[in-house]
Each structure stands twice: as C-alpha cells, then as structure tokens.
Amino acid sequence: MKVHYTSLGFVNTKPMFAAAMRSGFAVPAYNFNNMEQLQAIVMACLETQSPVILQVSKGARDYADRTLLSHMGRGAVEMMKRKAGEKGVGEIPIALHLDHGDSFELCVSCIETGFSSVMIDGSHLPYTENAALTRKVVDFARLHDVSVEGELGVLAGVEDEVAAAGHTYTRPEEVEDFVRRAGVDSLAISIGTSHGAFKFKPGQKPEIRLDILREIEKRIPGFPIVLHGSSSVPGDAVVAINRYGGRLKDSIGIPETQLREAARSAVCKINIDSDGRLVMTAKIREIFTLKPEEFDPRKYLGPARDALCAMYIEKNKNVLGSAGQAPEIK
Ligand code: G3H
Ligand code: 13P
Ligand code: ZN
C-alpha cells in the first residue's frame, strides 16, 4: 500500500538541518530493528525534547519486515504524541530515514511506503556514476518532497581488520561539484569514522580529520554534512560484555569530544547504531549471568531498553547538543 510520510506524522529532514546549522547541534540518527530500540529512541528524544531521525537499514527492513517497520514508525509517532500530552510537554519532530540505500528501486520503495528521507549510498561507485545514481533518486524524491542524503568518500570497513588504513577520505575539491550535480539535501563524508565497534587499532590515536571537515565547509558553506560510523564504543559496556561472558577485543570508538566539535560545525546529522547494540548486549548478558533463572523476555529486554534510553539521553545532551532543540524546528 502506497502512503505519503505526512499522513504517518513524519517530517522531512530539511527544517531539522536548518535549525541544526543555525544553532550548532547535530540531529541524532539512531538505527532501529525492533520494538525496544524504537521505544528507547523515541522516549529519550521526547524526554530531552530533541528532534530525531529514525534510521532503517536494508538489513533492518529485511529483519523486521518492511510493512511492520513502517507501521512501527507510524506507531512511534502516535505514541510520542500521546505521551507528550500525558506529560504536558511539546511534541517532537520525527523523520523516518532509509540508511545506506543501495539502489534506486529500494529508495523508491521506501519513499512510497512512508519514509520522509532516504540515503542513496553510491560511495563505492566511480564519481560520475555516484553523482548520476544520486541525481536519479533526487529527481524521484523531489516529486514527494522527500529529502535525500548522498555520500562522497568511502568509510573503512569493519571486517577488514585494518579499519583506519581502509578509508578513502572525501576530497574537499569534489564536494561542490557533487552537491550541484546530484542535487542532494545533505552529504555524508569520510573523515576517519567507520562502522562498528573496532574503529581504530590498539596504539593508534582515535582521531577524526576535523581539518578535512573544515576544508569541506569552506567549499560548501551552510550545507548540511552527515557523519556515519559515529559510535563512541562506551568502555563500561565493553567491560560488562566481557565480564559476563562476551569476547570483544580492542573495541575503540570516536571520542565524544570530537563529535561534539563536529556537531557545532556544519555536521547536522550524526549516525549511531553500534553503541546501542553494545549497551543492549551488556545489559542482557548481565541479566543472563546474574539471574540464570529468568526466562521472561520482558525481564531482560525491558532493562536493556531502559539502559538504551539512558544512553540516548546522554548523547542528546552531551554529544549532539540536540536536547531542547525540538521547539526550534519550524
Ligand atoms: O551503517 C550501518 C548500520 O549500523 C546498519 O547496520 O546493516 O547491520 O543493519 P545493518
Ligand atoms: P556506528 O556503527 O558507528 O554506530 O555507525 C552507524 C551508522 O553509520 C549507521 O549508518
Ligand atoms: Zn552508516
């Protein structure tokens, strides 16, 4: 069934990014695959009065089912409105975004089933092919007033064990032309972040290339920049996972101070998924170890959801600077 995002209560990302640019914060883009993650994200953002981008990857869509996910997103908006009324606080703007769309067809499918924003990730393609594919998605998205994120530069993979060596940093001299050719609303760049929990090698200084970011900003002033791979890999979650039977070695993330600095600049959207996975896993492992008699999923997924919610509240307040910004989005 085709449905436009406005009838589901979503907004596109344009007014969010305008406010983020004006006030020096980044909009949180948190991934979800299941109900507990979605509840935690929405409750944390309502509590902190932060705008939020709910992100759905291709894998999440396959895992949870595309129809169910759209309805969950719609349900999240309705829940947010009800809870806002109960608490006597303002409603928050919520966008539903396709993360790492890998084809025109997938973007079309999402746009037609209620997404208000899509990413077309042509970053692995040659420059002109990336620009052409992205433009094709933009032309379709415009017909539905859906925002589009493109990507230039390649983040290092998590699997290749040489994460930091695998980056292809975004070339500042290309961004102006790419943004014009592709017509995107925001641009994801590669400046040393990467997906997953192993972003740097032991002994390596965890550092992103803020100098490249500044150079990019000079070329396209006022244009919304996106950072993928921005989990910080909280040490206490990693310690808890390992204490309760897990085996995570050399997990290193992006220092939160650097993300805060990026959020103050043209970075308007920061993507975080792995931190949520770590926090949930730590809590579930703890309960499985300390309460081996427990077998009601609510008794371990509930506390995992609460831990997740607490983490998102911290992120909004102290890393992204998005707390309190919802009323500024017009
Ligand atoms: O950027 C990748 C996101 O963390 C989504 O990951 O494809 O495993 O759902 P996924
Ligand atoms: P992390 O793996 O660092 O959380 O990055 C998530 C992301 O970029 C989603 O698109
Ligand atoms: Zn990503």
Report on the structure:
By secondary structure, the chain is an alpha/beta fold. Helix 5 packs parallel to helix 6, helix 6 runs parallel beside helix 7 and helix 11 runs antiparallel to helix 12. It has 12 helices and 8 strands. It binds glyceraldehyde-3-phosphate (G3H), 1,3-dihydroxyacetonephosphate and zinc ion.
Mean pLDDT, to the nearest integer, reads 96
Q: Which small-molecule ligands are present, each listed once? A: glyceraldehyde-3-phosphate, 1,3-dihydroxyacetonephosphate, zinc ion
CATH architecture: Alpha-Beta Barrel
CATH topology-level name: TIM Barrel
End-to-end CA span? 30 Å
Strand order of the largest sheet: 1-2-3-4-5-6-7-8
Shape: globular
Structural class by helix and strand composition: alpha/beta
User: Helicity, in percent?
Assistant: 40-55%
Main beta sheet, described?
8 strands, parallel, barrel
Keywords, please?
alpha/beta; TIM Barrel; 330 residues; binds glyceraldehyde-3-phosphate; eight-stranded parallel β-barrel; binds 1,3-dihydroxyacetonephosphate; binds zinc ion; 12 helices
How would the blueprint of this fold be written?
Layout: H1 14-23, E1 27-31, H2 35-48, E2 52-57, H3 58-64, H4 66-87, E3 94-101, H5 104-112, E4 117-120, H6 127-142, E5 147-152, H7 172-182, E6 186-189, H8 210-219, E7 225-227, H9 235-243, H10 256-264, E8 267-272, H11 274-290, H12 297-320
Parallel strand pairs: 1-2, 1-8, 2-3, 3-4, 4-5, 5-6, 6-7, 7-8
Helix pairs in contact: 2-4, 2-12, 3-4, 5-6, 6-7, 7-8, 9-11, 11-12
1,3-dihydroxyacetonephosphate binds next to β3, β8 and α11.
